[in-house]
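Reply to dn_fold:

You asked what the input looked like. This is it:
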Amino acid sequence: MSKFFTDRLSALIPYTPGEQPKDMQYIKLNTNESPFNPSAAVAEAVATEAGKLQLYSDPENTAVRTALAKHYGFDVNQVIVSNGSDEVLNFAFMAFADEKSPLIFPEITYGFYPVFAELNCIPYTQIPLRDDFSIDVEDYIGKNKTIIIANPNAPTGMVLSIADIEQIVKSNPDNVVIIDEAYVDFGADSALSLVDKYDNLLVVQTFSKSRSLAGARLGFAIGNKDLIADLNTIKYSTNPYNVNRMTDMAGAAAIKDNQYYADNCQTIIANREWTTARLIDLGFEVLPSKANFVFAKSDKIGGEELYLRLKEQGILVRHFTKDTIKEYNRITIGTKSQMQALIDTIISILGE
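and this is what came back:
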């Protein structure tokens, strides 16, 4: 780092994104992207907007916010969109957490949470998971702190029920509870059903996974209109044109073409169940997942060794070095042919 970097940030450990190597053609099962192209309607919307890039985007993101509000049954003023869900999560940390309302979140979860907390100088506590990697609801009841929970959790893929989430929200009425639902469309129930009941609930989702727009960078949050107004204060104080023209219209088109994406999600779910069964047949322990990935380990080969051996043979999975999960790999669910290639390669590795 340079000698000019501030003392406040010099110790910051940044988030590490998934590998994007260029040295060969890989089967990418490491970053939870969709294996399916955006719909034709989305491609058409992007092409149309590409001819207008000399103009600023709509700072109110009217097209996609209106589509989201109609699709999920909320008022437009209950919706904010952002440059990926990471941006609105950062906004929420800035808006709703500080020394008086510090953060709590699971010790094993999305790696950006501690980074955002450190970046914004927010005190935080990480709560260990149970031995089976599930979240203990009692750890979050009546804490009087700002809470963020990924549901399904990452990298485990495990879920809390809506009843459990409601307990947490209801028991912390003076603090915001953020439910990060990046993977909710792959079999979990959404906490959106609770939004109009509790003014302290913020639900965050993304277009990156189930709607095939990871490269477009589009996320959103839905909550009480006053929470959204708070988030907009931060948006308009940092980057009012945070979503570009093409992404705005791509998002609106994706919502209107929802059946295409719903069908793709069902395919991913079927491929996930097939992959889980094959891994179990090979002696793997696989956590119960409601996401577009599985978290698995084998007593026949170490987690890092399997990750490296797969990479050598052109298949990328995600390996984490934290002691509690270092024997596991997170495997994105792709097409059936991609998952067959994964299983065949694992069989070959284990047989050597």
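The chain has eleven helices and 13 strands.
Hope that clears it up.
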